[in-house]
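User: I'm putting together notes for a lab meeting next week and I want to include a structural view of one of the chains we've been expressing. I don't have a solved structure, so I'd like a prediction I can at least talk through. The sequence is below, exactly as it appears in our construct file.
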Amino acid sequence: MAQVDGKEPLEVEYENAAKLSKEHPDKAIFELKQIVDSELASPKIKEQSIYKIAETLADHGRGKELATLLHNIRPFFDNIAKAKTAKIVRSIIDLASKIPNSERLQIDLCRDSIQWCKDTNRSYLRQRIETKLYSLLYEVKEYTPALQGLTNLLWEVKRLDDKPLLVEIQLIESRIQHAVRNLPKARASLTSARTSANAIYCPPLLQAEIDMQSGILHAEEKDYKTAYSYFFEAFEGYNSLDDPLAISALKYMLLSRVMTNNAEDVQAILGGKTALKYHGRDLDAMRAVAKAHTDRSLKSFEGALTTYKAELTQDPIIHTHISELYNTLLEQNLQRIIEPFSCVEIEHIAKLIQLPVHTVEKKLSNMILDHKFDGILDQGKGTLVVYDEPHADKTYPTSLEAIQTLSRVVDALYEKASKKNKKKKEKASSKTTLVKSCKN
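Assistant: Thanks for the context. Below is the predicted structure for the 440-residue chain, given as structure tokens.
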């Protein structure tokens, strides 16, 4: 076939079809599929055409056709290297993530590809697709099958000593263990991931993910100062790669400052050059929370929770710590209000704190049960009776201490007396033996 401007005709056809992908996707996909099916096309042109078809389908949300494409091009994989096959398959599965709410589609693609890998004995590719599958199962909250699969995969990869893949698997395991609230195992998995990562070159994105998980686990332990440093490292890593997770790391940084009672630092961080490009409702939500915390205003806090409900509740990490912060702030405000009273109407407390009566009553009940203060709720009269903090009577502890000391003294005297009696008996026995020997 004649060349056009130094290019093969099929290469020209590919370029023309690629230009049509945005305005006329159906026509572009049809022409690109003809190139893939052509026996005259080189493997390179076919590979480029496959990528362009997959990209076009993903951009237009055509997930089922993407799955069909992955299935139909498998005969082509017999003619190219296994490494290139692995790259194409993983790229198509990753492109499926561009389609909104496509987690189930990606899971189906992974499972189908894993079965194909088993049938064609492609262990390298299977292990990586399995890792992707368990990560997706974590996202859709199917933790049990994900943990079971990871256990088997981890044992297999450890035997092969594939450290880059081992780091990814251990990191996913740590996330799942954290999600099921098994914090000791989550920390152990993360420590193993860090150890494996130290033995190899760790890509910036993977290092940022490790730092993010480290920050999350330290925040769970209430070590917000250390968590902040990890979130900062994660933010820098994500920001350098323009990864969307950078904004999550920034939100966690701001949350850490609020939780350490340094809410005034939030405005300074948000005013920085790096944070300005992430301006939006997510950061406005954290700013509102920080302001409410600084003002010790429950009304402002509840206003922020209502206004930015999606931003503060959809992320489980933010939601957990915001709830804890709200409870702490509510307890502090209630204790400050009831401090001057020995008996006060619950309705009056609710009016002062600007919250519904049933909310205040429930919280006061929990505080009494948790021994935050001494008192009772008189529901008949609708009042709270606060008792003075009982003064510890030192008579009983002092008496017990004196009795224990006397007991030790008596025990010591008894032990000495026992030793003396034993010596006397031994002397008497020796004298008796000597007298008997002299008579004989």
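A couple of points you could mention at the meeting. The radius of gyration is 35 Å. The chain has a mean pLDDT of 87.

User: Perfect, that's what I needed.
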